[in-house]
């Protein structure tokens, strides 16, 4: 199966940051340029459905939420409907302050001495920054996008900037997880 096409590149920007790719889901999701994505939650029968588009409005990732599920499962699909990730709810014994900083550990990091990724900011305000490990190396940022329709309907619509050589599917999955944590916290 051929790798899906990368999202459309935005206008050229100065590169910097990470030189070596940071693949988590797969290396072909690490674009050599900044990837600008728009995340929009869809409201309907299933809770947790999202559409993630590139700068041209083309669907890059679709997230299907649970309709009725024991494990509160989410599927990340590419534009053709092929599964990329399946996420299931997992309880954590570590409680972290949600509005300021969150440490992210991959399954392969069994020692938990140093986090693999870090998120700082406020998901409530949709103003979050993602960092590589416990460093100040910025790998992605999220910000709220306002439109007349999103304001009128009260829907979530936010932008995601993923820096060069960072797995944009993984960052998208983190945003979905943060949305779920925020929703669970407010329910």
UniProtKB/TrEMBL annotation:
Coiled coil: none annotated. Pfam families: LOR. It comes from the Eukaryota. Belongs to the LOR family. PANTHER family: PROTEIN LURP-ONE-RELATED 15, PTHR31087. This is Tubby C-terminal domain-containing protein. It comes from Setaria italica.
